[in-house]
Amino acid sequence: MKPQTTHVLKHLALLGAFSGKIEISSQDLASRLRVSQQTASRYLIELEKLGYITRELGVKKQRIGVTPRGKTVLQTEYLLYKRLFEHKDRLYIAGTVFSGMGEGRYYTSLEKYVKQFMEKLGFKPVPGTLNIEVEPVELSKLHLLRSYRGITIKPFSTTDRSFGAVTCYPARIKDVECAAIQPRRTHYSNVLEVIAPVNLRKTLGLSDGDKVEVSIILGKGEKR
Length: 224
What we know:
The chain is an alpha+beta fold. It folds into two domains: 3-72, Arc Repressor Mutant, subunit A (Orthogonal Bundle); 88-217, Beta Barrel (Elongation Factor Tu (Ef-tu), domain 3), CATH 2.40.30.30. It contains eight helices and twelve strands. It is elongated and about 65 Å long.
């Protein structure tokens, strides 16, 4: 999203659209933003198309509210500023355990991935991943996590196909060492996958539907 559009979204939120709906005309918004009415209207149309606000058009004014998707954008922005000023070394992400389609077991068993996991993470992962559906209120943290460099598992190719890069972040669940992984090619935007040298479900007694919190260690880049 363009910086100007983010600025308008923040402005609407500060006017009260984050927690409810506000009534405002495009002319009033233009005056507050110090832009033309046409430009203000264009910003609102763009925000609505992106799914960040809802609009109910009236005769002179419109009722505007920030959507859950828009709130996630603002929460991510907030966390980025917190990262800038607070320099925290851990990020805690909560979610619900669920069963995937079994693809993780295949990928984490591939020799060229396993070798890199051992070299860069210091352990050989048990085949498979612990799949965690991140809570909606925690999604901004997942977006923030992706802004960190992490530890890169390099891509490789075989005669049949290519396998993408994976970013890893050293982590812990309770007292168990593990790593959160983010495949560069993924269809999920709300899932955190975790690998470990032990079977996390058995070790921690986890089942589908259980709540779990992952403590991710930030600022750890490539091991030399």
